[in-house]
Amino acid sequence: MYKNQIIGVVIPAYNANKHLRQVIEGLPEFIDHIIVVDDQCPQNSGEIAGKMAESDQRIVVIRHTENKGVGGAMVTGYKKALELKCDIIVKMDSDDQMDPAYIPDLIKPIAKGKAGYAKGNRFVDFTALRSMPRFRLIGNSALSFMVKACSGYWNMMDPTNGYTAISRKVLEKINLDKLSNRYFFETDMLIRLNIQNTVVRDVPIPARYGDEESSLSIRNTLLRFPVLLLKGLTKRFILKYLIYDFNMASVYTLTGMPMLLWGLFFGLYKWIENSVNNVATPTGTIMLSVLPLILGTQFIIAAINIDINSTPK
Length: 313
What we know:
Blueprint: E1 7-13, H1 20-25, E2 33-38, H2 45-53, E3 59-63, H3 69-83, E4 88-91, H4 103-111, E5 117-121, H5 126-131, H6 134-151, E6 164-167, H7 168-172, H8 185-195, E7 200-204, H9 218-243, H10 248-276, H11 283-309
Parallel strand pairs: 1-2, 1-4, 2-3, 5-7
Antiparallel strand pairs: 4-6, 5-6
Helix pairs in contact: 6-9, 8-9, 10-11
């Protein structure tokens, strides 16, 4: 399966001194290159990888002079993997939540030419789900639905999973310098892949949870992610449905969204105005709000249905 294919693994390292050695040691022997990106780790994780590189020539250590976030670290790692002529590049976090035993399953659809990008799916194994913290499970479920709508990969069960693999051909088509540097990186990648109609496969891989500490700020995520998701959705719609193509989803959205907004805001305005003045709202005024609201909603649902059916397969 891996004959004549160079396999690389990129590991963004930040606060990783507890698990980095274990992650690297657990990688299969068929991995050709192990790229560790020390994202100005305060625990000097790069030193651990550097010492391991003395006895393992597969290990390449890159150190950032300033923290760029997981996205920035992955962009650095991807560029190095392309430089090393890797055919398939796997992303693994440094917290040991991603079992390296599943790397063959993850890269299989890419190696066989059935997909250009593969992601782990934690939601298939119910035993593993029970071990996931409840708050994280609820948050992941809600975020996953929003990412599906934003990215256009409606068939994915776990779009926020960071255990991924990508082919060289697909990676070369992406403008790496434009990718989001922080935790929106995974979603931004999916948006760009959908725009270029890349087939993405789900691969069942249970997560492992231990004593790792997440550097993700829940507060910042709740404040920033909705804005980033809206921007990503808008960008995907403009590029995919206005510039690269124009179909009925484009017509339904351009017609339905103004009607939906008009019905919503006009109806709200009139309701407040008439409530303050203690005046009954005329039937005609009600219809001026309700009819556009109903039609706009139906048009948007039709556009979403077309988008679901256009998921790259």
